[in-house]
């Protein structure tokens, strides 16, 4: 099983600031099969990024993903009020079970 | 637009079987294109993949659930289901269904259902 460790657990920032979220895998995530999801209170997770760096349809370009191998990053260039939420990374490589990180909460400072 | 909708009892007694159904609209589940998944989220906690089913009936489960979870499919009703046996309070969670493409590079979960809270309590 690939264990995904996200850091930090909580990120306290102000609107307009840059957010940098990390996701580290316990073994190589092949084919960069790494996705990021945003979850707001009471809602299902929403796909933001797939393939480590590809934005999903309709996702603003202030969201960007990067990384490969075992280290991945989600960057939100300028936080908007609607971006304060919990973010999860997930690996969907050929190694089952598919797993999620424990989440990073981006909260208003 | 593809939509998934979970349904089933919101309250299950300990030791009984949790049964949920995911109805898909805007897409046929009877194709070679997708896996159909169940995922759960404990209150205030993270996400856990339970397993998937392919339209042929082929399934794969998270080893954490393999002895208790059964996923089935009914193409005539365009829905798939989850049965989780011998539930305990630890199975109290929001249960989601989600679609994943079959291509290795596209097996992310999109879209998701809205989720349904199942509470295990006597």
What does this protein structure show overall?
The complex is a heterodimer of chains A (109) and B (122). Chain A is mostly beta strands and 109 residues long. Chain A has no helices and 11 strands. Chain A has strands at 4-7, 10-13, 19-25, 34-39, 46-50, 54-55, 63-68, 71-76, 86-91, 99-100, 104-108. In chain A, a hairpin with a 3-residue loop joins strand 5 and strand 6 (54-55). The radius of gyration of chain A is 13 Å and the shape is globular. The mean pLDDT of chain A is 96. With 122 residues, chain B is mainly beta. Chain B is 0% helix and 52% strand. Chain B is globular and about 40 Å long. The N and C termini of chain B lie far apart (39 Å). Classes of the chains: A mainly beta (109), B mainly beta (122). Chain A binds chain B through residues 1, 31, 33, 35, 37, 43-47, 50-51, 56, 88, 90, 92-94, 96-103, and chain B through 46-49, 60-64, 96, 100, 104-115.
Which structural class do you get from the secondary structure elements of chain A?
mainly beta
Q: How many beta-strand elements of chain B?
A: 11
- Low-confidence parts of chain A lasting 5 or more residues at pLDDT below 50? none
Low-confidence regions of chain B: none
Tally of individual helices of chain A: 0
Mean pLDDT of chain B: 95
Order of helices and strands of chain B: EEEEEEEEEEE
Distance between the termini of chain A: 35 Å
Q: Summarize the biggest pleated sheet of chain B.
A: 7 strands, mixed
């Amino acid at each position: 099983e690939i264990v995904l460790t996200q850091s930090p657990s909580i990120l306290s920032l102000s609107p307009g600031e840059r957010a940098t979220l990390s996701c580290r895998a316990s073994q190589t995530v092949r084919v960069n099969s790494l996705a990021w999801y945003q979850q707001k209170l009471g809602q299902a997770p929403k796909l933001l990024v797939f393939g480590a760096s590809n934005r999903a349809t309709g996702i603003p370009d202030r969201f960007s993903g990067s990384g490969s191998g075992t280290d991945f990053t989600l960057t939100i260039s300028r936080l908007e009020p609607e971006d304060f939420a919990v973010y999860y990374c997930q690996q969907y490589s050929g190694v089952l079970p598919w797993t999620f990180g424990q989440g990073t909460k981006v909260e208003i400072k | 637009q593809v939509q998934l909708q979970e349904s089933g009892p919101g309250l299950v007694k300990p030791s009984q079987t949790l049964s949920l159904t995911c109805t898909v609209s805007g897409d046929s589940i009877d194709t070679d294109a997708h896996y159909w998944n169940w995922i759960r989220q404990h209150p205030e906690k993270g996400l856990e993949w339970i397993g998937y089913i392919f339209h042929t009936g082929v399934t794969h489960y998270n080893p954490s659930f393999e002895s208790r979870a059964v996923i089935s499919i009914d193409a005539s009703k365009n829905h798939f289901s989850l049965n989780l046996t011998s539930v305990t309070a630890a199975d109290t969670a929001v249960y989601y269904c989600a679609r994943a493409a079959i291509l290795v590079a596209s097996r992310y979960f999109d879209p998701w259902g809205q989720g349904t809270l199942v509470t295990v309590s006597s």
